[in-house]
Structure formats: structure tokens, C-alpha cells
Amino acid sequence: MAKMIPKSNLPTKTCQVCALPFTWRRKWSKNWEEVKFCSQRCRRAKTKSA
Q1: Are 22 and 12 in contact (CB under 8 A)?
Q2: Residue 50 Cα distances to 3, 13, 22, 37, angstroms
Q3: pLDDT tens track for 31-48
């Protein structure tokens, strides 16, 4: 079993739509470099405004 990393040590980014910080999630482990939005709601809001 993998060693657990404390939540305070996880990498963070800022959402391009709402400008709120969000932390790394396991489901984003393979494409963390491409993640730009904190949620599906922000992703949809970006495509509507563009």
C-alpha cells in the first residue's frame, strides 16, 4: 500500500474561471498538468463565455 501524503502537502492550483484554489485529486493524477478548472460547473461556464 502506498504511503499516505497529508492533505496540507498536496499541490494546489487556481481555477481559471472562479479564481478559487483547489487541491490535487487522485482522479487527476495522470493529467494534473492539463487540469485548469476546479469543477464541471466552471468548465461549462468557461465554454459558454468563450
Answers
A1: yes
A2: 42, 21, 22, 15
A3: 999 999 999 999 999 876
What cell was used for 25?
485529486
Residue type, 50: A
Question: Cα separations (Å) of 11 from 6, 45, 50?
Answer: 11, 24, 28
Percent helix, percent strand, percent coil in the chain, to nearest 5: 40, 10, 50
Task: Give 5's pLDDT tier (boundaries 50, 70, 90).
Answer: confident
In 3D space, the residue among 13, 9, 19 whose CA is nearest the CA of residue 42 turns out to be 19
pLDDT recorded at residue 1: 65
